[in-house]
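re: that chain from earlier
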Amino acid sequence: MDPGNRCKGLDLAANSCYTPYAFRDGLAAHFLFVVQGLMDYRSVIETAVAGLGYGMVDCERSGSRGMLRVFVEGPNGIGVEDCARISRHLIRVLAVEGVAYDRLEVSSPGLDRVLRKEEDFVRFAGEKARIKLRVAQDGQRNFTGVVRAVNDGKVELEVEGRVIAFDLANLARARLVPQI
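^ sequence. v structure.
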């Protein structure tokens, strides 16, 4: 087999690699290989965590294999036992799904919890949040204020007595401001 003849077509949607192979007698065969590491590891983790009765708040990954950090929440909060249970489950699930990582950390989201989804902003309406935008609005990218509402894909934040609306798609980062 010609070494340069490997993986002629890569289909990211199907996680596959199409490889033609020519035999000496002139006949040809085609092989289909599953390419590891192309799946959406976030959805795998979110589904696994939900199956245990918890919710995935966020997931971070450093490097292609490196650290995999998962932030979870539960109906009664998150304790050390919950994190250990989720971690044991995720180790098995990630091995079966072929998700490569060197180290796995499972923890609560903390007091400065990240806000990502529309449901997060609805749940924490009335709480103070710090928002950073991808593209500046009114010449500014960073805002701190009270989450008021979410309407039509826009988050309304009360900043210094005025309400400003931001597109969810324009949010680079949003976190709760811990109340001490």
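The two ends are 67 Å apart (CA to CA).
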